[in-house]
Amino acid sequence: MTDFSFRWKSGFPKIGIRPTIDGRRRGVRESLEDQTMNMAKAVATLLSEHLRYPNGQPVECVIADATIGGVAEAAQCAEKFAREGVGVSITVTPCWCYGTETMDTDPAIPKAVWGFNGTERPGAVYLAAVLSAHAQKGLPAFGIYGEQVQDAGDTSVPDDVRGKLLAFAKAGLAVAYMRGKSYLSMGSVSMGIAGSIVNDAFFQEYLGMRNEYIDMSEFVRRMNENIIDPAEYEKALAWVKENCVEGPDNNPSHLQQSREKKDKDWETVVKMTQIARDLMIGNPRLAELGFAEEAQGHNAIVSGFQGQRQWTDHFPNGDFLEAMLNSSFDWNGIRAPFIVATENDSLNGVVMLFGHLLTNTAQIFSDVRTYWSPESVERVTGYRLEGAAAGGILHLINSGSAALDGTGEQSKDGKPAMKPFWEISEEEAANCLKATSWRPASVEYFRGGGYSSDFLTRGGMPMTMSRLNIVKGIGPVLQIAEGYSVDLPQHVHDTLDKRTDPTWPSTWFAPILTGAGAFRSVYEVMNNWGANHGSVSFGHIGADLITLASMLRIPVSMHNVAEERIFRPRAWGLFGTADSEGADYRACSNFGPLYK
Fold it and tell me: Closest by alpha carbon to 353, among 429, 283, 453, 280?
């Protein structure tokens, strides 16, 4: 059986720590060597202890061989970082240094500077000077400066500094990891959905990614020519029969398919799942079977499956393929999710990827289907919404593509959660499967049959919904809404759910309202959402998404993140401080895409 550790064969970017120092000898530099290097070591320890790569391994940090007092030592550090595969740069110092001589000038690497808040040496003066140089040279950097003064011998990392270091590093690693990877388009445009018009320039210039394409006929070829691992297929089919419960068939009796056709569909959707994964990352087992070219894959960290309508009018739908790959487990056990966008909506696939790289958790792909006002819910069900849902709710639902982690059957501190795969127990994975039924697809939508996952997300989970849109003349724009999943009384859920397609997974989502702009009401959130789809991530990660977006030069058009949580490059303040949303647009437009 295939060992899928090859998925990570290209490795991960490392974080480079640059200890800069006052270059003056004969007492000044010598007195600062230990303190400066200890700052670098403290940062490396912090990041390695608290951050993990998508495969679950601790993040690796690389520290310059010596403190950096001038341009020659800066060049030596840059050479070491290039050899070591550094993709994120953090400069630390307790003192004055020569700004343009010691700064990191690689334009493609996200960078931050921590200037120690102490009174003995002017670390804050260097921080201001070097950030000014970064702005002047068009190389925006994040400034980190502790609120409280520290003593010279204090080797601790204050909480506020710690939070900014972790936020910067998480986003920086996401930027670095995307670079050089692929988006795999399986098929083309689905039902005229703009997000599935894959924009090569966006992926290349903003994300540093390439685009790969296959026609959906490749699935037919691989099934007909048996270009899959047959041993894995037998294992997968047996696992599916044991763990995937087939739910009731909601189709009218005259449209219901035969038992023989349904059984055949199970065989087909399992093969489709194997094929989609192999197309994304390759599979050495195929080379052993004589398919060396197919064994390579497309180096894809995210993909999209067109499905409708050219595929689903004839073949089983892609719901099982998408739901299982997006989940943190399958017949090979508990593992990292694969990111697959329904209907080849590449822009929703990108925010799914953002959420995954920031949290290492599975993501829920859904339609932003319906706004239910309190009045409408009460009129239809007799129930008055309360608690987090008092202002109304959004019904997030789509044709069975959401990760099964979205059931909320995992737990953290006794509460429902979605967790990184290395924290998920076998029992939790089994509970997610038990909470999901696989409903025969609605043949009015999917003439070729197949199965759609059906589950109800447990309430009380902090969640963040996001969406990327492309606007002509502006480029990519990000939208963010933090909120909570909501429990409804069973009869209320059933009544509302049956008004749409009850064979699909449902998440009842209540965004947090601020009383201003797009977050004056839940209706305004729905009314301002830029597309029919959204990606939902566990946790309130809006601040992390904003940090990541600023690194990529993508402005944020709406969010409900408190101002004090927002962390962007220091240069953003030079575009205005009274209107941070406008300044974000101006800064992103001025500096332009990261890789252009």
Answer: 280
How far, in Å, CA of 424 to CA of 426, rounded? 7
Position 118 scores a pLDDT of 87
Count of residues in the chain: 596
Spans of the chain, pLDDT less than 70: 1-3
pLDDT at 1: 46
498 C-beta neighbours (distance < 10 Å), count: 10
375 included as an active-site residue: no
Which amino acid is present at 118?
G
Q: Which residues contact 186 (CB under 8 A, 6 or more apart)?
A: 214, 216, 218, 219, 276, 279, 303, 304, 305, 306, 344
Residue 8, judged by CB atoms within 10 A of its CB (0-12, 13-18, 19+), counts as middle
Q: How far is CA 289 from CA 2, 221, 231, 271, 489, in A?
A: 12, 16, 11, 16, 53
Q: Is the pTM of this model over 0.85?
A: yes
- Helix pair 319-326, 259-281: axis angle to 10 deg: 50
Instruction: Give the residue from 520, 501, 545 showing the smallest Cα distance to 351.
Output: 545
Cα 247 from Cα 263, distance rounded (Å): 13
Strand-pair category, 333-334 with 437-440: unpaired
H or E segment and range at residue 545: helix 542-552
Which among 212, 330, 343, 405 is annotated as catalytic? 343
Cα–Cα–Cα angle for 195, 471, 506, rounded to 5 degrees: 40
pLDDT in tens, 171-202: 999 999 999 999 999 999 999 999 999 999 99
Nearest CA among 161, 70, 69, 169 for reference residue 116: 161
C-alpha to C-alpha distance for 104 and 130, rounded to whole angstroms? 10
Pairing of strands 142-144, 111-115: parallel
DSSP SS3 for 260: helix
| CA–CA dist 430, 324 (Å, integer) | 13
Q: pLDDT value at position 2?
A: 54
**Strand stretches in 385-474, DSSP E:** 393-397, 410-412, 415-417, 437-440, 451-454, 462-471
* Three-state secondary-structure class, residue 580: helix
Residue 52 DSSP symbol:
B
Separation in Å, CA 188 to CA 34, 91, 257, 469, 558: 57, 44, 28, 18, 29
Active site annotation includes 487: no
Question: Among 73, 212, 330, 367, which one carries the catalytic annotation?
Answer: 367
Q: Give CA–CA dist 366/423, Å, rounded.
A: 25
- Tokens 């001038």, located at residue: 70
Map residue 166 onto helix, strand or coil: helix
Between CA 83 and CA 63 the distance in angstroms is 13
Pairing assessment for the beta strands 182-186 and 300-305 based on DSSP bridges? parallel
Q: What are the C-alpha distances in Å from 307 to residues 169, 303, 450, 559?
A: 37, 13, 12, 32
CB distance 20 to 91 below 8 Å:
yes
